[in-house]
User: Fold this.
Amino acid sequence: TQLLEQSPQFLSIQEGENLTVYCNSSSVFSSLQWYRQEPGEGPVLLVTVVTGGEVKKLKRLTFQFGDARKDSSLHITAAQPGDTGLYLCAGPNTGGFKTIFGAGTRLFVKA
Amino acid sequence: DSGVTQTPKHLITATGQRVTLRCSPRSGDLSVYWYQQSLDQGLQFLIHYYNGEERAKGNILERFSAQQFPDLHSELNLSSLELGDSALYFCASSVAGESNSPLHFGNGTRLTVT
Assistant:
């Protein structure tokens, strides 16, 4: 069974700080996606990483896919209160017909 | 706005009852996925339909069933409800049948079983 483990589970930081959250698996994934979910809403896709070693930037967010395609990280520079939310990593299972999700990292950025 | 519509937004019902959750996918999307989100378990995959046919099943209980209709909307039926079925139920849609396509989520149905 393919599993995605995310760490930390919870992170509370001050505005302006940097942070990194991680998504790890013992399985190889053809791609990984990162979503952000805010209270009362469904997850929203932030990025998809496909190639091992790939780095993608989305404003203050930097996403990296591990060389072996078993892990990924999300780094946020100078966090803002608007970054508060649940960050989820997800990937297709081996058969390719279901997307599995990690349990998420709940981020709270204090003003 | 993701373009995915879920109804109802909230549902409160009693144990033993049956409910139907409805999802209209984004225009042009052929795949519909259903997920259950509980406080302590994250997003659990239930089932995936593509163009009316079941593509993949997760740990979906036998009391739960789903279907996708010719107009591509989908319904998730939950019967003999138990307290533990209380959760957020999300529908997501994507263009293709393979799971490397980005998912577009609705805002969920919050089910409370009392």
Chain B has a mean pLDDT of 94.
